[in-house]
Amino acid sequence: MTGYLHERFPALRDTLERVALGSGPTPVRRLDHLPNCASVWVKDDGAYGNGGWGGNKVRKLEWLLPEVKRQRRRTILTVGGLGTNWGLATTLYAREFGLHTALALIDQPVDEHVEAQLQRLRASGADIYLTHSTTRTVVAAPYLYLRHRRPYPLPAGGSSPLGALGYVEAALELAAQIRAGAIPAPSCIVTAVGSGGTAAGLYLGLALAGLTDTRVIGIVVNDKLRLDHRSVTSLARRAARLLQRRGAILPQSHLPADRLTLLRDWLGAGYGHPTSRGARALKLAHDTEHLDLEPVYTAKAMAALLDLAASGRLPDGPTLYLHTYGPR
Question: Which of 54, 130, 166, 255 is the most buried (most CB within 10 A)?
Answer without folding.
Answer: 166
